[in-house]
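During the no-cost extension, the postdoctoral fellow (Dr. R.K.) reprocessed legacy sequence entries with the updated structure-token encoder. One reprocessed record is reproduced below for audit purposes.
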Amino acid sequence: MEENYKILITDDEPDILSLLEKALKLEGFNNVIKALNGADAVSLCKTENPDAVILDIMMPGMDGYEVCRKIREFSIAPILFLSSKNDEVDKILGLAVGGDDYVTKPFSPKEVVYRIKAQLRRVSYGKAIASEPIRVGKLVIDPDKCEVSIDGRSIGLTAREYEMLKTMAENKGRVLSRERLYETVWGEAGFGCDNTVMVHIRHLREKIESDPNDPKYIITLKGLGYKVVDPDER
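Re-encoded structure tokens follow.
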């Protein structure tokens, strides 16, 4: 199955590109494309439409954060950041601009590959169980195409934002704790997940709410969690 996936690696260090390419191919990912800078990465994403992206943050010129922002204008492919920094602020920023996972240098190539596998499994699972579009007011989530629109306008979401919104919409009107959202979307224990979930909720509101400071779709229940509601039914 892995040979059908196309993976883009972007890093300004050729040795790291070669190391990751070798690790990916050892695990069956034979369709690997590489970029040495951010501009090439954005261009390749547009022309090659990769299934997942491994992206270095610290690059000359256009850094990984800016590359991620540009990719998110047209793609929801999972993005895994590589960084020499191990600061929580940098991790949160990576998630805030649209990243889905984060690995700190020096890293284990096998860990990077298995994290990419985990991201692809979530995307594939979401497609496999796809059914009729989920409608909440003017918000429409199409599981078959992994697309979201509101009032007929297409909304560009990251893979994690999409999964989070779909999870809440499938449980319309029910309060989901931050821990449950994290465990469902990330597939990991939700201990200490508050900042990560809050960042994703904030960015979802910025994309789907007419006024993110007065949300109508994604409602916070202080101390309990979040729920998606139909504004016309409130």
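The mean pLDDT is 87. The longest strand covers residues 6-10. The remaining legacy entries will be reprocessed before the final report is submitted.
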